[in-house]
Prior knowledge:
Layout: E1 3-4, E2 8-10, E3 13-17, E4 20-24, E5 27-28, E6 32-33, H1 40-58, H2 64-83, H3 87-97, H4 103-116
Antiparallel strand pairs: 1-6, 2-5, 3-4
Helix pairs in contact: 1-2, 1-4, 3-4
Amino acid sequence: MVRRAPITIFAERPFRTPFGEVSLPEIQTPPLVGPPSLNEERRQAIRQAVGGDLATVVGLIPVPALKFLTGNITAIYQSAMRKNLTPEEEHLYFKYKKTAALDTGALVRAFIKADTGL
């Protein structure tokens, strides 16, 4: 994981006023974080998460048989995805899955958290 140094937006600068000298503080961006590192296991997990998300989208079609198939396909993709995760990544994935609409978003957040601790 690449952590980039903060960017200075406004340098500290003193100003003279009728009430005395005033200095404004330096304004910087927070430290920027690059994308998570992707090894082959993580790539496979992301592919499985995308497959599960696509199966969920197919389940939105109002046909009863598709809803049944969607649940099974999503379960297959999730079990295959969990095989490629470390215990820490799996714990973080389930933590973020509660609030994420898609598996892929929760998985990427888990990877970023596992890499940086943010």
